[in-house]
Every structure is written in C-alpha cells, then in structure tokens.
Design a protein that fits this description.
Aminopeptidase, alpha+beta, single chain
Length: 172
C-alpha cells in the first residue's frame, strides 16, 4: 500500500483497482455529491476509472486523487486530492469527497489540514486553493479553520454561486 499521508485516524494513499467498489458507493449516494459540480449520481466502475484517468494522476509529483482510508482497516470513507488545475506545480487545488456518514466527525478537517501540510512541507508548494459552492457552509468553515482566506466569490457558467479560498506557504 502506497501511503502518502498518515493522520491520527486515516491513511491518505494511492487509489487501487479494488477501491473502486467502495468509491462507487460514495459517488452514487446523492447526499455525498450534493456539493460536487456536474454530479449525475449514476456512476459506474467504468465512469469512475475514466474520471481518474482524465484528472491526470501524477502521484510521482504529488497530484491526483487519493483514497481516504480508516487506518488498519480496508474501509474507504472518501477521497482527497491535490489537482494541477492552474498548470503550475507550485500552486495546486485541494479537494475532497467524504461519505456523509463521516461528516461532522473531524475527518474533513483531518484530511484538509494534512493535505495542506503535505503540500507545503513535502511538495514545497507556494499556494493551495480550495473552491466550493457558496451554499456549502461546512466546507467554507473548514477552509477558514484550516487557515485559508477567502479571495474570490462569483458565479459558475451554470449560475451557481461559488467561493474560492487560498492559503500560501508563508501564511503558516
């Protein structure tokens, strides 16, 4: 198992083929995907594989989507990622999807703070950005709790209100 981050309760690690069934259950639960853009709630293993192929899993450079697994179990509670959305390996986007059974238990905070630490300490990033729908109050509060600052608000092409938070390496 290729663990990139170990937290108090989780391993954040590369996604393996046998993780896809667990992730598919998360993706096909509309509650889990309520704040994820363009979610259709009709995912298949093939669509999930295609998604992971499209986002350019570059584990060698620290970018891609990782499984969030409860330590010492096979249980996947979600995924967490660092994405090269800005075509700049010194400025990555942070994102995650967490099974709603694990909301409000501190896992989101554990995931985000560990990704921030990993990004700045291991990958030597200059900046991390998190974007979310404005109605996703929990993610807004989590971004603030993790030391991120609101830098932009606006509307997507679909008319959805969004927020953008940033943390710079020097902010820590």
């Amino acid at each position: 198992m290729n663990i990139i981050i170990e937290t108090k309760r989780l391993w954040i690690r590369e996604i393996k083929r046998n993780d896809l069934d667990n992730l598919l259950d998360i993706y096909n639960n509309s509650m889990n995907m309520i704040f994820i853009p363009n979610s259709d709630f009709k995912w298949t293993i093939e669509k999930l594989e295609e998604k992971y192929d499209k986002i350019n899993q570059d584990y060698k450079n620290g970018t891609g989507i990782y499984a969030a697994q409860i330590k010492n179990t096979d249980f996947i509670i979600g995924e967490a990622g660092l994405f090269n959305s800005f075509q700049d390996l010194k400025h990555l986007e942070l994102g995650y999807i967490l099974d709603n059974r694990f909301w409000r238990k501190g896992y989101g905070s554990e995931i985000c703070s560990s990704l921030i630490d990993y990004g700045f300490e291991k990958l030597k990033l200059d900046k991390l950005t998190a974007r979310m729908f404005k109605q996703n109050i929990a993610s807004i509060k989590l971004s603030e709790k993790c030391g991120m600052s609101l830098v932009n608000e606006g509307q997507t092409d679909n008319g959805d209100d969004f927020c953008e938070f940033v943390i710079k390496n020097k902010d820590l």
